[in-house]
Design goal:
Beta-Lactamase; about 240 residues; GAF-like_dom_sf; 10 strands; alpha+beta; GAF domain-containing protein; 6-stranded antiparallel sheet
């Protein structure tokens, strides 16, 4: 059971003005999703299609897919029963959350690497194909909310992409139909970034407080899965 104080701290630190009871209910629901035994997946949870990248790899070429799928087993140190179970759980969580919020795109990323070699790696998603890795550099964070949240550990809520860009906000465009976005950090117990979640909608203002509560709950329960995914620092489990 995740204590209410942990939920309260996360909401306060991320400046999310959400109803605590809504978040508590969502957390309990998602923990139940994790606890349920799941069948062996019928699809490949390790490999997925990705768009071709533009010059320098700075932006994706929309609707042009690379011939070679991205292989998570390379990023996660191979395939294992435990890693497969974790990826199955991540996909089940996305199904549960998106049934409540109706996002047009929803994904979970894990931070891998350190320093300038650190990246966010997409572990599971719902929606159209998108890039697999986001560099965690100041340069990339200037126009990528995913990288910005991965570097800072602070949430980004974009109610209207067009207004956001008009006001000078940087924006990485994977799909030109996206009109609103919310990106939340997944934090370890020591507040260091373990990963992020990203949700997008083709409708401006889609992510109401009620929908944000489910996304906040997802960010809060994810450490118990992401913290045990290899590769681990020094070969040991990290504190969640």
């Amino acid at each position: 059971m995740i204590p209410a104080s942990h939920l309260t701290d996360y909401l306060r630190e991320q400046a999310l003005n959400l109803d605590l009871t809504d978040v508590q209910i969502a957390v309990m629901t998602l923990q139940a999703v994790i606890a349920v035994d799941k069948p062996i997946p019928q699809r490949d949870v390790y490999r997925y299609k990705v768009p071709k990248l533009g010059e320098g790899g700075s932006c994706s070429l929309f609707d042009e897919l690379d011939e070679t799928p991205y292989d998570l087993s390379a990023a996660l140190g191979g395939e294992s029963v435990e890693t497969t179970a974790a990826l199955v759980n991540l996909n089940a969580l996305l199904d549960s959350v998106n049934a409540k919020i109706g996002a047009d795109w929803l994904g979970i990323y894990r931070k891998l690497g350190v320093g300038k070699s650190a990246v966010l790696v997409k572990l599971a998603y719902k929606g159209v194909e998108s890039r697999a890795e986001f560099p965690l550099t100041e340069e990339f964070a200037e126009f990528s909310n995913n990288s910005r949240v991965g570097l800072t550990g602070w949430a980004v809520v974009v109610e209207d992409v067009e207004k956001w860009r008009a006001d000078g906000g940087g924006y990485y465009e994977c799909d030109p139909k996206v009109k609103s976005e919310i990106c939340l950090p997944v934090l370890r117990r020591d507040d260091n970034v373990l990963g992020i979640i990203d949700a997008e909608s083709f409708t401006a203002g889609h992510f109401t407080p009620e929908r944000q509560a489910w996304l906040a709950a997802l960010a809060i329960v994810l450490p118990q899965i992401l913290v045990n995914l290899p590769p681990l620092e020094n070969g040991e489990s990290l504190p969640n």
